[in-house]
Structures are given as C-alpha cells and as structure tokens.
Amino acid sequence: MLLWYTDVAMCELLGMNCNVPTDIVFSFTGFCERGGRTADHVDGWGIGFFEGRGCRVFLDVAPACESPVAKFVKTYPIKTLTAIAHIRKATHGAVALENTHPFVREVWGRYWLFAHNGSLEAFTPALSGRFVPVGDTDSERAFCAILDAFAARGEKEMPPLEKLYQTLAEVTAWIASHGKFNYLLGSEHFLFAYCATSLHYLIRQAPFRTAHLADADVTVDFSSVTTPKDRVAIIATRPLTDNEEWVGVAPGSLVLFQDGEVVMG
Fold first, then answer.
1. Is 57 left (phi over 0), alpha (psi -120 to 50) or beta?
2. CATH C-level class of 12-264
3. Cut 0.85: pTM above it
4. Active-site amino acid positions
5. Which of 89, 119, 238, 242 is the most exposed place for a label (fewest CB within 10 A)?
C-alpha cells in the first residue's frame, strides 16, 4: 500500500554517485511519486546530470508525478557518474522556474550542481558579486555563499578534495546556524552531502540483489543489469526502497562520495 507522507514538511533530495556511468531511472521513478502522489512536494522539480565536462539539467514547475518532462527523463536512461535531483515544497520564493533546484554554476572551469532541503531564516549573506542569485530562494543564496567561499581561496585550479572539504565544512556550519540545511553539492566525479535533519544513503555493489521501490510497485534485479565491478551510491532524504538497508547520516555530518563510496565524513 502506498502512503501519503504528511509529516514531511519540506523538499526532498536525491543524489547518485558511481564508479562507472549509470542511469538513475529506477530511483528517479520512485522519487517522482513523492512529487504529488505519495507526498505533497508539488511546487516543481529538477534533475541534473554530468556528462564529461558538460552538465544537462531538466527543470519544471509542474508536480513531478504528472510532469511530461519527468516522464521523458524516466524513459531516457542518461548514464552519468554524478546526478542530483530535487522535488520542491516552497518555503522561500515563488513557484517559478528560476526558483527550481538544482541550481548550476561554474567554478574553476567546471560546473557545480546544488540542491537544498530545509529553510534558512534571516539569511542575507554579503555576497562578493561573482555569484548572484537569479531567483529569490534562500537555497540559491546559500549556493552562492558556498561558491564565494570556494573562490575566496584564491586558487586558479580546484584544490584537492581534502582541502575543499574543510572549506565546505566551515561555510556549512555558518549557513546551518540559520536553520535547516540539508543539501547535495556535486561536480563531475564527486558528491558532497550534508545532513541537518534527515538524509540516508545506500551503496549497491556485488553481489547485486533485487530492489523494490517504496513509492511504486516497481522492482529491478540489479544483478541482471550490472557488472561485478560496478558500485553505485544513492543518497535520498528518505529511503527510496523498502527491501534494502539504508544508512542514516548523522545530523551535522558532511559526507563526500566518490566512485560510488564514502571517502570522507
């Protein structure tokens, strides 16, 4: 039986990071059900994929469960190393395309995707002007503040992930002091995930098993569509399947995924 989750008051996040290009169709199918069918996140949705140095983003203000664009994405198995998706329940900013996550910007000659679940109060950072919000959400302001902190390091090239993790942890602590700040931030080969209140992940690797979605009667036998070397990390606000063991991220934790596994946090 499918349940309507009335206790989930804000947006939801979905991320994927892999060691080989993989499609997110299965997880995205269940995730979309929460955009108006099994939960009331009806104020738009979006998903972004990295393809080499490029970034492909789909956004729509329609509920994900009935969006023709979401239907297209579910039937178009884009293979990627990193993907970020979001279903929105608006708390700051109008229901509009410019306020729909994930947001994308360039730093160090590479694209970055960002999506946020939560609400920040009295958050009016003094931004440098290099990164300026297009919409009027607290989420996009937070993204610009994070990228300002990255740029303030002064490097012409992206620093090692260990140093970037330290910078991100510092700016995250400051932003999180303004409210609830669950987020996903990623680029081509890696994905940062921060838990303020609720975030879970699982890592699929050999021996692969059958998985069943919690929000739709859909099952996939991953042993038939993978190789023994494949490894995929799925990150979500709430577990997307009901027959796999998900790991709850401790509140206040920043986790870095690379090649489909946890490398920091």
1. beta
2. alpha beta
3. yes
4. 11
5. 242
